[in-house]
Amino acid sequence: MKNFKKTGVILVTMAVAFGVLAGAVAYAAENAKDVVNYRKSVMKAQSAHLKAIKAIVRGKVGYTGLLGNHAKALDLTGKGLTDLFPAGTGPDKIKSRAKADIWKDWKKFEASAKKLNVETAKLVKIANGGDKKAVADQFKVVGKACGGCHKPFRAKKKKKK
Fold it and tell me: What pTM, to 2 d.p., does this model score?
């Protein structure tokens, strides 16, 4: 009787786990367009903050007091970045510049995203310190970390004819 209860618990646990997994996959597939649009919005927000920081550190505008805010926003939008790439949102399922290599080499993708998180966290600390030169130096490092994902994992824009 004891083994029967154990077997029953194991089967129920497996059924629940399978149901949750199947539901998550179905959810991602059903909402792939929404997920990709959300992902694009987050990436555009990151780009906007990068452009704002660049304008400040290059002296095009004088909003140095806002460097910390832009750095923090960049850092926050980078958290959970890999969550924006669930199965079913790749180029085989929906129009996207995300390459299939993301899902083929997930560990490398995760490592690249983590590198970005580390470097943007450093940027926040430096930006709050007020040293514009140090911010400019770390900004370059953040840019390289962005390229660590974009170069191997994002397809180039197709030129409009």
Answer: 0.78
